[in-house]
């Protein structure tokens, strides 16, 4: 099949960006979106032009490195699927496909389609961890965890940290990301002792780095890990709990 | 057994390698099960107030790297942590699916630390270090406790206790898991622990920063040269010790189950600086990877081993049978694993299953458009259990498969093929995880030792965790203690300046070639060559061709490489070029090791060494050692290029006497 | 290939700053004040329905509101307390909304999200617009039926004759149209607002969320249907 890729080109964060159109031939419906970019880059390098920069790593949808905006939609047309698992069979033969970086004020462009998502880690740094030093943990069977809690915690912990939720949000909010981490740790008994401190830290950092949530629900629509929209309420619940409780746990 | 490497193969071997000295083994009188306790007792300590006087450099933020960095930070050392990713969580540990083994032995299925050791050593076909396996087993208990405490939501029984499942190669249930995403959950928990130390200032994290060289001064590893991938700036960071936790080199095969950016550069450049490389030819091929079905397919995605519980593997009896799979009648199908290994059937260990598939494909019975795969058929299981049960068990995997291939595995059999997966080989280290360069430590898949010639499922997450959290935090201080009072190497030191200048020249050299082909094209060709010549099965003849092919490709690379773009900015072509340059050298070392190791063991299968039944034939009389390779240069001006010295660490198995593996 | 669009992408994230009023405080305030308004419009709608019981009953209801809790509080005391609460809530709600709206725009950066097709997202995006329409309507509504200020009110306005004032007002098709439009807009605002409030106040339980979603929808529709019938029956001449 044949496609026209309309790709955002931007040399660096300090320079202006623009779209360029590239005809792409010799691809097929079995190509993943990123393999199509691989092919384009091979063509470009063979012609002596700079290839398109984009982040990608595991190509299995678990590392969260990849992420491009396809025709205005983070990751691509297939819902809840990361860019690396989007396939060309979603597009008509001869279609023009527009590829941009993830868009958010908190994600400055590094080059072309690659962005800087370190703001997400700054949210984790503000409290998305358990303060148990290695070697000091009690026996993992000492505190039983219900099957249900473990499964629910895992639903929330499935986040791959790709940042699509932020890019999908018209407000540039990271509520789903921050909420999934806060709720994941609030659900498990081993991480209860700093529950309120965590809620406070994560909320503060998320507000400093990102926009506010107004429940568009777009985040959960594009989330490749299927994080439930409940997570956005979870962050508010934990923060409210902290305010009312005014303690560390 | 007679050596099979004769004629041209022997000549090439003689040209490339010399046999060096034996490495000191673990010199101890202590029983194997008590070595770790004994070592810890004799390790030197650094008192809490002195720890902040030391800086440890940790490269890589996977389970081993993040664990070591966080643990050393928690102890009070200054840590400089490096990853080429944009975030520590993306390290490839994240992609492990099945689980993590631990010898907690809580149920009454008769598991124990000793049984864990036995399974691991036997699974590795007696080519690993038994004492390391003991440490792995002992510390596995605390690993689960710790990872649980820092946020990994392990699967639980309805009674609230940890759930386990069983994995290939063992007969007990010791694998702890979080659905099919155990690696992700452990990795995210470890990255969080690392970020906790970053928030306290104890760890200084450098993302999008790639290690280009190791700085060795006064005979000790005292720093690294790094390139900031965003600005292109090359600089040095010095410290009192360096830990490499940079993963395996499976991507040398281009298409593998690894992430696209996983590479050997950090480990290989340490190897160039003198670190010995152990057993480079030991590469595990995963039997249930997706086959290559188009030229542009970027990898051979892993499909969980668990599929073999209900799927039946077969090929058509007639070579070149072009009928659709469902049109091939029962008596014209060969369920070759069930036929050859009636006891284990479709659940033979990975190396055996991969090899059997390769045999069928090579005999012309491969299926699919490129005739490079075998069928994994769920028809009978669906008939027996119903589509609903199969969907419950494997729904997400089936979805992933049809996602990738566009085929419906409920209606027609899956196609699978062996894909390069895990590197059992790695930088050689002693029992304390220190390489042959003093002060340079290694952890996780970048190292060697635990897994011998074949790794058991769910042991890789464990070895990374044990190294990072429960080995390096003991052994690195042992090295640091006598250095108290010595000043950290200045970044203005001559050795540092020289290393930086060399790295800068190296980058410039790649750019200066000014040829016509991008690095990816060389990488693809290298991968194809290696799959053919140093793949699931190897032969002396093929390895010679492989070595010749690699050397020709390397020459072409250094004359016709094109690195598009500028060196002073974000340039992924430049990153790739540097990595492919190292792969070309790594591939040579792998083929050399495979040619040199004149026996079959575990995942290393030499056609010349098989039993009448076609099984791997080990040669303990001659090869009961780990090869640790040293890189030198040719002193013959007429035949320039790298030369190698093979050192030996003889292996002892006091607790698990070597035996022949038999899965029939 | 052709270069098409030139647009500046900001190079660095906005400088991090401790926010003087946290988003959490602003959102919680909006949620609580919003819920006060939801209660208000629901009760107001219930009061409006008295019109179907005739002029006397309706005027009596209006009068009763003024005498509520007498003599514990003075005449119109409760009404003024309610008015004070409503005005304060209005200021906080509008203020919070504008604050969050500006922060959201800044956080998103220069490239707006396009291609929103889902109903929920469309409702969320409409909140500012629907809020402005409702605000304008409230101003008009107070001028028309509370203060009787011209030209919003009819020239027959007479304080105390709630029924007559209302009927006269709705007999102007333009006013009825504006009212009906506002009620439709209000439905959207109340439905999404109530759902958002449930999220902002931390409703994570599965059943609680289901209840909140149903309540949000049903209250919004009830308010709309109950209120919209009134101008319709006036225009149709059923009530005169």
UniProtKB/TrEMBL annotation, chain A:
Please give the SUPFAM superfamilies that the UniProt record associates with this protein.
2Fe-2S ferredoxin-like, alpha-helical ferredoxin
The processes (GO biological process) annotated in the record are: respiratory electron transport chain; tricarboxylic acid cycle
Q: Which GO terms describe its molecular function?
A: 2 iron, 2 sulfur cluster binding; 3 iron, 4 sulfur cluster binding; 4 iron, 4 sulfur cluster binding; electron transfer activity; metal ion binding; succinate dehydrogenase (quinone) activity
InterPro entries attached to this UniProt entry: 2Fe-2S_ferredoxin-like_sf, 2Fe-2S_ferredoxin-type, 2Fe2S_fd_BS, 4Fe4S_Fe-S-bd, 4Fe4S_Fe_S_CS, Beta-grasp_dom_sf, Helical_ferredxn, SDH/FRD_Iron-Sulfur
Catalytic activity annotation: a menaquinone + succinate = a menaquinol + fumarate
Q: Does the keyword Amino-acid biosynthesis apply?
A: no
Q: Which Pfam families does the UniProt entry name for this protein? A: Fer2_3, Fer4_8
The protein's matches in PANTHER family, at most eight in alphabetical order, are given as: SUCCINATE DEHYDROGENASE, SUCCINATE DEHYDROGENASE IRON-SULFUR PROTEIN
UniProt record similarity statement: Belongs to the succinate dehydrogenase/fumarate reductase iron-sulfur protein family.
Q: What is this protein called?
A: Fumarate reductase iron-sulfur subunit
**Native species:** Kocuria tytonis
UniProtKB/TrEMBL annotation, chain B:
- EC number per UniProt: 1.3.5.1
Q: Which cofactor does it need?
A: FAD
What range(s) does the Fumarate reductase/succinate dehydrogenase flavoprotein-like C-terminal domain occupy? 523-663
Q: Does the keyword Transport apply?
A: yes
The record lists the catalysed reaction(s) as: a quinone + succinate = fumarate + a quinol
Domain (FAD-dependent oxidoreductase 2 FAD-binding) ranges: 56-461
| Localization terms from the record | Cell membrane
* Active site positions: 350 (proton acceptor)
Alphabetically ordered keywords of this record = Cell membrane, Electron transport, FAD, Flavoprotein, Membrane, Oxidoreductase, Transport
Q: What class of enzyme is it?
A: oxidoreductase
Q: How does it sit in the membrane?
A: Peripheral membrane protein
What molecular function does GO assign, one term?
succinate dehydrogenase (quinone) activity
Question: Which Pfam families does this chain map to?
Answer: FAD_binding_2, Succ_DH_flav_C
Query: Which superkingdom?
Result: Bacteria
InterPro entries (alphabetical): FAD-dep_OxRdtase_2_FAD-bd, FAD/NAD-bd_sf, Fum_R/Succ_DH_flav-like_C_sf, Fum_Rdtase/Succ_DH_flav-like_C, SdhA/FrdA/AprA, Succ_DH/Fum_Rdt_flav_su, Succ_DH/fumarate_Rdtase_cat_sf
Q: What is its main location?
A: membrane
GO BP: anaerobic respiration
Return the GO cellular component terms, semicolon-separated.
Answer: plasma membrane
Concerning its family, UniProt says:
Belongs to the FAD-dependent oxidoreductase 2 family. FRD/SDH subfamily.
Q: What is this protein called?
A: succinate dehydrogenase
From what organism does this protein derive? Kocuria tytonis
TrEMBL record, chain C:
Keywords of the record: Heme, Iron, Membrane, Metal-binding, Transmembrane, Transmembrane helix
Instruction: Spell out the InterPro entries in the cross-references.
Output: Cytochrome_b-558, SQR/QFR_C/D, SuccDH_FuR_B_TM-su
> What CDD domains does the entry give?
SQR_TypeB_2_TM
What coarse category fits the chief subcellular location reported for this protein? membrane
Q: Does the keyword Transmembrane helix apply?
A: yes
Please name the GO terms that the record assigns under molecular function.
Answer: metal ion binding
Q: Which residues cross the membrane?
A: 21-43, 78-101, 122-143, 178-199, 211-239
A Pfam family recorded for this sequence: Sdh_cyt
Q: Which domain of life is it from?
A: Bacteria
Localisation: Membrane
A GO cellular component annotation here is: membrane
Q: What is this protein called?
A: Succinate dehydrogenase
